[in-house]
Design goal:
10 helices; FAD/NAD(P)-binding domain; 8-stranded mixed β-sheet; alpha/beta; single chain; D-Amino Acid Oxidase, Chain A, domain 2; about 375 residues; globular
């Protein structure tokens, strides 16, 4: 049986990024995934910042559309329009992004195994055993260490004593034909999406993505949203095949153990405000790769050594995650009348101009902006 240096469970962006970084350094890496390919079973709008595209050298061929503006609509139909002179974000093909990052990792030397589920990770004195349950047989892979990057919902972190994420929302999304929509629209309505929000994002060729995040009943909420947008003439039809996901709102209590790290959505490294996890996942993947490299050099994969990973990623992201969770909790508990009032106050107090002038605004780092927003509209 071959002994790998690293086994990575999950072929999403974070997993493939770790695979790429370690493979380029000459370590033997295998990535295993339950899906039949890296672009399968993706439920994500794919809005990434220009900062993310540049920082990770993502191919411009992945971009379906640039975005420099968006309309935010209140329950009563009032709206705030935020606009910048240059693109702030890009809407990318999310399935293709997964494929692209996997191809880069493979070109660097990583091996991929698809169509197999990991039922357990056993930590041994000299390494880890990863138990695979494929279509034909049960297999065991061995490595010096493992990375869990499965996306949210895996039982593996809990089995390793790392705890569970108990704060989450449900997501649903469908691709639709649009009617003349050329700008992102975001909808806030507690009756439609309790504790969350919804969106219509134009992509390319008269197509778009309609989706939402909500505390419950994502399927019926999406049906109602599609019907509403169809009746308004914004989409051509309310008939679409939806995809579903669950999005964590807080990090895993602990993201490291002896010989194991947890990265990306599996670790709860997601923006609580928008549910976006690609950029934070890639940032943490680089941190994980750096810590693992030092562990290889020292020949020490103890929890004490790997704890540096959690220290580094929390130092970078924890403030954003705390402020973002606070802001989401506040919004989730507002009534529709309060949301309408906030929209009016925000417009009166110049919030769109505050964001549009770029002062303190970042697509990925919301903490400073959220605190400014609170200062500009409170008391209410």
């Amino acid at each position: 049986m071959m002994l790998y240096d690293i086994i990575i469970v999950g072929a999403g962006p974070a997993g493939s990024r770790v695979a790429q970084r370690l493979s380029r350094l000459g370590y033997s890496v295998v990535v295993v995934d339950k899906n039949l390919g890296p672009g399968d079973d993706v439920c994500c709008t794919g809005i990434l910042s220009q900062e993310c595209l540049g920082a990770f050298g993502l191919d411009n061929g992945l971009v379906l559309r640039q975005a420099s503006s968006a309309r935010f609509l209140s329950p009563s139909g009032e709206y705030l329009r935020l606009c910048r002179q240059s693109p702030v974000a890009a809407i990318v093909d999310r399935s293709r992004l997964n494929v692209h990052l996997a191809e880069i990792a493979e070109a660097s030397g990583a091996r991929y195994l698809f169509g197999v589920r990991v039922s357990d990770i056993l930590v041994k004195p000299g390494g880890v055993e990863v138990i695979l349950n494929g279509q034909a047989e049960k297999r065991v892979l061995e490595a010096k260490a493992a990375v869990i990057s499965t996306g949210f919902g895996s039982v593996l972190p809990a089995k390793l004593g790392l705890g569970e994420i108990k704060q989450f929302v449900f997501g649903a999304q469908a691709e639709v034909a649009t009617n003349g929509i050329d700008e992102v629209e975001v909808y806030f309505d507690q009756k439609l999406t309790p504790g969350g929000f919804a969106w219509l994002v134009p992509t390319t060729g008269g197509r778009g993505l309609v989706g939402l995040l909500t505390r419950s009943q994502a399927d019926s909420s999406l049906e109602n949203l599609l019907e509403a947008l169809s009746s308004q003439g914004k989409i051509a039809s309310s008939q679409a095949a939806p995809s579903y996901d669950v999005v964590p709102l807080k990090p895993l209590p602990r993201t490291y153990a002896e010989r194991v790290l947890v990265v990306g959505e599996a670790a709860g490294q997601v923006k609580p405000t928008t549910g976006g996890g690609v950029y934070y996942g890639l940032l943490c993947a680089d941190i994980a790769a750096g810590v693992l490299t030092k562990a290889f050099e020292a020949g020490d994969f103890s929890a004490n050594v790997l704890s540096a990973y959690e220290g580094e990623w929390r130092a970078k992201l924890n403030r954003e995650l705390v402020i973002g969770y606070w802001a989401r909790t506040l919004l989730a508990n507002l009534s529709n009348s309060h949301i309408d009032r906030l929209f009016r106050l925000a417009g009166k107090n110049g919030l769109p101009e505050l964001i549009s002038d770029g002062n303190g605004f970042s697509f990925d780092w919301h903490g400073r902006l959220l605190l400014k927003m609170v200062g500009s509209i409170l008391p209410f």
